[in-house]
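=== RUN LOG ===
request id: a7f3
mode: sequence -> structure
chains: 1
length: 112
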Amino acid sequence: MKNELFSCRSLYKHHSKKKASANRTFEERIVLIRAKSFKDALIQAEKEAEQYCRQIKTCTYLGHVDAFIIHDKPLKHGSEIYSLLRESGLTEAAYIRRFFETGKEYQSEICF
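=== RESULT ===
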């Protein structure tokens, strides 16, 4: 297989410099990886995640990465770069509250 473009999502826990709190800060990070296979993309994404933690120094890689092969070439406005399907018994509103709008997200600011 020739090199393909993958988007890879990795998960992190950030360590606050503030006093101890019951709440933890987690990060979902998506990066582009060029790889020869799905397995190679996962390996490269794990290496990238570990490098990210060495640079940031206030986070720990949680050992989870998933990958999505990008079929749209070349990338353009509206290209799908990531998708995750999940089955759930939750209603639409409950699903959004549970996974996306908990009220504790930092979407446009970084607060570490």
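=== NOTES ===
The mean pLDDT is 88.
The first helix runs from residue 38 to 56.
=== END ===
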